[in-house]
Amino acid sequence: MPIDKYTYTKLSDIRSDIQSGSLSVKQLIGFYLQQIKEKSHLNAFLEVFEEEALANAARVQDKIMLGTAGKLAGMVIGIKDNISYKGHRMTAASKMLENYVSVYSATVIERLLAEDAIIIGRLNCDEFAMGGSNETSYYGPVKNYIDQTRVSGGSSGGSAVAVQANMCLAALGTDTGGSIRQPAAFCGVVGIKPTYSRVSRYGVVAYASSFDQVGPITHSVEDAALILEVIAGKDEHDNVSSSLEVPDYTTRLHEDAPRKIAYIEETLNHEGLDPEIKSAILHNIEELKAEGHIVEPVSFAYLDYVVATYYILTMAESSSNLSRYDGVRYGYRSPKATDLESVYKLSRTEGFGEEVKRRIMLGTFVLSAGYYDAYYAKAQKVRRLIKEQVDELLTQYDFLLTPTAPTVAYKIGTSKEDTLKSYLEDVYTVIASLTGLPAISLPCGTNSEGLPIGMQLIGKRFEEDKLLSFSNQILKERQL
Ligand code: GLN
Predict the structure, then answer these.
(1) Strand duo 399-403 + 452-458: pairing
(2) Where do the coiled-coil regions begin and end (predicted)?
(3) Model pTM?
């Protein structure tokens, strides 16, 4: 990767350079804008807020010099295009919302701005966050910076590549079944999905409401902790957001402690797992042991059921959530429509892409009177069983360890050939999604072709502080 004097991997370095006078916020923004232009072929950004970012540079610079700056001053951040930012377009990578302008800002955006972050643009993703390769975007796939014939992962593909290719320091993504962690793994960066309800979903396009969470994608664990600390916490606009106090993730980041980790044996013996990923994970397990941690194999009986359970539930929830795009209130309206019924039918037929339509139809099916008990109600019960078993494992261990994904970034075009296979890619990430637990993906090496491999750690409910400090410790030991 090209090295440049502005290639920063954490905010604390930026801040000390600004403080010492060797860098200005304006120079930094200029650098990122330049990178975005040079790497526009990666298709990570859907829009760049160039003037606005430059206009904010002086204000943030002054605040830093005066010592009145917020925690995120100097942080240049991109946002996934399913998060509302007042006065800015937000498309959810769909034709349906092609011309939609947000009328209010998501709580996460308000909180970033209140701490002086500079938002540099909106990032490509899978349409309505449905997908794992960014190939369902109406605006085309995002290319992996390491090999541009390969996918970025998804659905937060633009977020991961923007960080990977140094087009911004950090990005926000959303994660329903792995959409922060899997692209982070494919791009060799850090991505954390917080505990369900830790971060407000207000202003975030709803996909599957009992799963959706916002989280950061960063180079360093330090920045992930910092961003999470800012965006987490009770929000009166999101009824399910937790009122539990948000720990100081950054000050706890340097707690070093020997930990007890379980790796799920079935995940390593899974037939779809790339042997190179398996050996990278086994190698990491040995390293963890050598570093003084207890690492033991455990068994998890439900691995074969997690993908089906996840897809039945999320499709059901999405069919309900996406019913609001009817061509009447907002979003795309077909010019061919002649009456109310054709407004609904044609607008939805023309406005949604293939994958979104597939999910709405399957979701409607599993919720329909004759099939509700066989699919939706049953999946709810299986979700409970999965949760109970994972919670039980976490009474004996601090973390569960798995690969983040069974493969490395694959060639663009392959996921369309076999939809079921692409769903099976989510086998490890959906464990934390179904159970609402916090989970992080950390870079843990590369395969023989130099493609990044990710390792997932799942923590206990609301124990993001331990997950982050342990992750920090791991990356420090490995000097990653
Ligand atoms: N790949 C998963 C899906 O398509 C995850 C998506 C997400 O987390 N938003 O549902």
Answers:
(1) antiparallel
(2) none
(3) 0.97
Residue 425 resides in a domain = no
In a domain, 426, yes or no: no
Please indicate whether residue 345 is annotated as part of the active site.
no
- If one counts the domains in the chain, the total is 1
Q: Tell me which residues have their CB closer than 6 angstroms to ligand 1.
A: 129-132, 155, 175-179, 207, 314, 426
12 lies in some domain? yes
Which of 125, 159, 426 to mutate for ligand 1's pocket (most ligand atoms within 8 Å of CB)? 426
Rounded distance, CA 460 to CA 400, Å? 9
Alpha-carbon distances, residue 251 vs 226, 229, 243, 304, 371 (angstroms): 9, 10, 21, 39, 50
Residue 316 within any structural domain of the chain: no
- In what helix (H) or strand (E) does residue 223 lie, and over which residues does it extend? helix 221-231
Model confidence pLDDT, tens digit, residues 55-93: 999 999 999 999 999 999 999 999 999 999 999 999 999
Partnered with residue 172 across adjacent β-strands are 79, 216
* Residue 106, phi then psi, degrees to nearest 5: -60, 155
Catalytic residue among 71, 80, 460, 466: 80
Q: Helix (H, G, I), strand (E, B), or coil: what is residue 45?
A: strand
Which of 133, 155, 319, 441 is an active site residue? 155
CATH number of the domain that residue 145 is part of:
3.90.1300.10
**Full domain range(s) for residue 193:** 3-252
User: pLDDT tens across 198-229, in order?
Assistant: 999 999 999 999 999 999 999 999 999 999 99
